[in-house]
Amino acid sequence: MSATGIGAAVRRKEDLRFITGKGQYTDDISRPGETRAVFLRSPHAHAKIKRVDTKAAAAMPGVIAVLTGADLAQDKIGNLICGWMIHSKDGSPMKMAPHPAIAANKVCCVGDQVAVVIAETLAEGKDAAEKIKVDYEVLPAVVDAAKAQSAPAIHESAPKNTIYQWHLGDAKAVDAAIKSAKHVTRLDIVNNRLVPNAMEPRVAIAEYDSGTDNLTLWNTTQNPHVARLVISAFVGMAPEHKLRVIAPDVGGGFGSKIFIYPEEVVCLWAARLVGRPVKWTSDRSEAFVADAHGRDHITHAEMAFGEGGKITAIKVKTIANLGAYMSTFSSSVPTYLYATLLSGQYDIPAIYCEVDAVYTNTAPVDAYRGAGRPEATFVVERLVEVGAREEGMDPAELRRKNFIKTFPHQTPVIMNYDAGDYGASLKKALDLADVKGFDKRKRESERAGKLRGLGYSSYIEACGIAPSQAVGSLGCGVGLWESAEVRVNPTGSVEVLTGSHSHGQGHETTFAQLVSERLSIPIENVSVVHGDTDKVQFGMGTYGSRSGAVGMSAVVKALDKVEAKAKKVAAYMMEAAEGDIVFKDGKFTVAGTDKSVAWGDVTLNAYIAHKFAGSQLEPGLKEGAFYDPTNFTFPAGCHICEVEIDPETGNTEIVGWTAVDDFGTVVNPMIVEGQVHGGVAQGIGQALLESAIYNAEGQLVSGSFMDYTMPRAENLPSLKVDTTMTKCPSNPLGIKGCGEAGAIAAPAAVVNAITDAIGSEDLAMPATPPAVWAAIRKAAKMQKAA
Amino acid sequence: MPAVSMTVNGKAVTADVDIRTLLVQFLRENLRLTGTHVGCDTSQCGACVVHLDGIAVKSCTTLAVQAEGCTVLTIEGLAAPNGPLHPMQEAFREHHGLQCGFCTPGMVMTAVDMVRRKGNELDEKTIRHELDGNLCRCTGYHNIVKAIAAGARAMKGA
Fold first, then answer.
1. Rounded mean pLDDT of B20-44?
2. Which of residues A627, A643, A677 is at a domain's end?
3. How far apart, in whole angstroms, are the C-alpha atoms of residue A289 and residue A623?
4. For B54-77, what is the mean pLDDT?
5. CA atoms of A555 and A484, how far apart (whole Å)
6. Which of B34, B137, B140 sits opposite A198 (nearest CB)?
7. How far apart are CA A364 and CA A292, in angstroms?
């Protein structure tokens, strides 16, 4: 391993600009002559729009235009779409209701766009927006997914507010296994709705050049090319070659910046109308209602056990709340990203899952860090833990007994696990967490009047999203390969263009590490270019822990081509046979001789082209590649949470956290650890603190940082993070991916620990002090009654 | 529109501003010092922290006119121009105390102020408590805590 190659904890190349305030986030960009867009949003969860009067607003100082849904419809701007088709079990397609970028006839959630003011300044835009008069006819709202199917339909095209009734697996086999089980564990689970809250709010700047008819969109997006494709092909804003999307520095995404949102469409449309750049910057309060939320499942789950704790079946019924409209990838989250992971790390012969996706009068729900896989892990790991308790078995032992031990392993729910060693990560985690010493620590806590508990989460996820043919067969509207281009300059420095997008993951460093190692050039001589559709030809963006496994694999493929071409150049330079050229340690050598040429000589010769004729070899050194993965990757590991609870207040303190993950090859351990830290923090946030709470009228009660409990430094512990390693056989570098693991593993570990401490399973997330306090009291009361 | 004058990162600046202009808007829009960020609208996230006469303030909750005659230090002015990085900046890089970088300027400015108030030897508990006004969604704070402890010690020698 070189000091800057794969496996080295290289300090990040991108950090200099961030620590000195020189980052260029979208809101930091100011275009000459720019105007500001301010949206008027619905205060009602469900209402007919009877009239929008913009006259008074239009007369306000600094106002350039006031635009409504009627104007948008008149200009034939298309609806936003969901790009993954799910079919119900009866074969009918999902019920995708129209989603206009500005509502014209009715609003379906608080925060729905009703009009937009384009003004000289933000303050003038805000003042004018207050003058727009809207006559609403308020309709009854439904916010609870459990009640959605018996409530009046929100969209005409979706009777009973049902988007699809989907299933996966073998119902008969599962029912038979449950019938003949020695023991069945049953749980009712609510996976709480979360607000992603990347620290940078969303921003869009649109600019139209009437001379060239080109539109440019600077946008806080995780996937600029997909945004361009959707806005061109479906919304019909401009042909793809006339629209450029630039995602500069992006301040966190966690899924919420994957989607194509109404505001960017409106800015593009308005920029052309007013002939000036239009900029919209989301307030945090806006973000709470206008960004897609995450999770929100109601589930009944059963796990059947045979002799000796052998798991024989899982049966799951979930109602997934997709909110008021179907967001870009929302349909896939509670289906193929969820039910396909219900086998966990275990050899389970029969699995059956039914999912009803419903509309409610709440913000749209889509992928949020982990997307479906945290929900699946929570179901499986709660069932296993509770099952062990009910059977009087050690939860670690029960897991060990059921682990998949041979690979490849075909689960009953589509996935084919390619490699793993689940026992190894469990064992390492047990040692690091000093589980042996737990009883002693518990007694010490008890002496201090505290409760102590231990919880495990042996999670698995499907990442490296994803083989195009496979996801296509499951309804995905796009391919999920990745592209790369390696441009070698005459002086030997390299630009790597990738379709992946970095919004905190450190690609400028890790992708450069790969090139530095492969070509034996200093890491300073490598630049990584991403996030601009004019620079990178196409790409699928970053989500689903795919940048390493898929994006870097594309770079490997392009580097293979670069090396092959460079060998040809070297062969001409040394008048040797191409097949005799060996490339090692940055030198091209004629095998068996001491004749060699250096990397920089070859790159220069590739461009000056003096040593070969054009008929023999094309000049230049630039290669591109598309890499389509052969399988998902399957990162897995074991997280152990130890909690201490004050029974008088219900306050939970996390006193120990151990994460042992198998991510396959680790390119930069410092960055990987950071990803685990962040993921765990979000998972702990879900388990202890965070919840998007709507009241019965559909008002988001927890709609600001004053009300929605974001994890703060004091809420979180220091984390013990370690890895085990089985290489991923499905990509050239052996990478599995690490971005989502923490968020997937953590909630189950926390809740397993708290329920262990309080001796009751009757506890929903977030396990706030009042919730834990009430659960302790309820359990005590029931014990007394018994 | 009232005129407002202050010294920002060592330079005297004067401008006519709408009375409701926030200090953060003045810095970002009038002076184009975009290193100071806005992450919320309720004074909770701390992405906008700058030093006003040497004391950390949230510039989203300070009117530009309140800074009249004051000295303002932003992330752009923390290290001397063309000089080495401030030890706290260096510590954030060394300890991977940032990922997306959006909260980082506010974190660094808060951390420097923390050292002013609490000294160079900061334990984990103190740092976590003192970070109550700064939100980060990427790092889980683990490496920020390590960076601040290291940066605080490094500032002793600086």
1. 97
2. A627
3. 44
4. 98
5. 5
6. B137
7. 5
Rounded Cα–Cα distance for residues A506 and A662 (Å): 20
Domain, as residue range, for B34:
3-77
**Amino acid of residue A225:** H
Q: How much is the pLDDT for A785? A: 87
Residue B82: band (very low, low, confident or very high) from pLDDT cuts 50, 70, 90: confident
Tokens representing residue A688 in the block: 């202890």
Domain-located, residue B115: yes
Count of alpha carbons within 13 angstroms of residue A505, beta-carbon side: 27
Chain position carrying tokens 């993070």: A721
A103 and A218 in a common domain: yes
Residue A5 belongs to some domain of the structure: no
Q: Which of B29, B35, B135 has its CB closest to that of A22?
A: B35
B71 with B92, same domain: the answer is no
- How does DSSP classify residue A247? -
Residue A512 confidence (pLDDT) = 98
Number of domains present in the structure of chain A:
3
pLDDT bin (cut points 50, 70, 90) of residue B157 is confident
What is the pLDDT at residue B158? Answer: 67
Task: Mark the ranges of chain A whose per-residue pLDDT is less than 50.
Answer: none
Using pLDDT thresholds of 50, 70 and 90, give the confidence band for residue B81. Answer: confident
In angstroms, the first-to-last Cα distance of chain A is: 63
Contact A571, A748 (CB under 8 A): no
Q: What residues of A are in contact with residue B143 (Cβ under 8 Å)? A: 674, 677
At how many degrees (to 10) do helices A599-608 and A553-574 cross? Answer: 80
> What's the pLDDT score for residue A674?
98
Instruction: Sort out which chain B residues have CB atoms less than 8 A from A505's CB and list them.
Output: 99
Give how far Cα A520 sits from Cα of A207, A334, A523, B30, Å.
42, 44, 9, 46
CB contact under 8 A, A20 and B100: no
Reported ipTM: the value is 0.98
Cis preceding-peptide flag for A629 (omega within 30 of 0): no
Contacts of A506 (CB under 8 A, 6+ apart): A12, A14, A668, A671, A674, B99
Taking the CA atoms of residue B140, residue B144, residue B149 and residue B155 in that order, the dihedral angle to the nearest 10 degrees is -170
For residue A520, how many other CB atoms are within 10 A of its CB?
16
Q: Is there a contact between A48 and A139 (Cβ–Cβ < 8 Å)?
A: yes
Q: How far is CA A621 from the centre of its chain?
A: 35
Instruction: Say if residue A445 is in the same domain as residue A496.
Output: no
> In angstroms, how far apart are the furthest CA atoms of chain B?
47
| Residue A786, pLDDT score | 79
pLDDT, tens only, A408-423:
999 999 999 999 999 9
Which residue in the block uniquely carries the two structure tokens 């793993």?
A420
Strand arrangement, sheet containing A133-138: A106-107, A47-53, A133-138
Single-letter amino acid, residue A27:
D
Say which of A200, A670, A742 has its CB closest to residue B96.
Answer: A670
Q: Are B73 and B101 members of one domain?
A: no
Would the CB atoms of B102 and A252 count as touching at under 8 Å? Answer: yes
Quick: pLDDT tens for A456-475. 999 999 999 999 999 999 99
Query: What pLDDT, on a 0 to 100 scale, did the predictor assign at position A1?
Result: 64
Q: What pLDDT, on a 0 to 100 scale, did the predictor assign at position A467?
A: 93
- Asked if the structure places residue B145 within a domain, the reply is yes
Here the CATH number for the domain that contains residue B122 is 1.10.150.120
A473 neighbors A746 (Cβ within 8 angstroms): no
Q: Taking residues B97-116, what's their average pLDDT?
A: 98
Q: Residues of A numbered 158-217 whose beta carbons fall under 8 angstroms of chain B's beta carbons: which are they?
A: 197-201
- A615, A661: one domain: no
A316 with A434, same domain: the answer is yes
Give me the residues of A, 724-753, that contact B with CB < 8 A.
742
Under a CB-based contact definition with an 8 Å cutoff, are residues A170 and A350 in contact? yes
* Host domain of residue A761: 297-466+631-785
How far is Cα A496 from Cα A505, in angstroms, rounded to an integer?
16
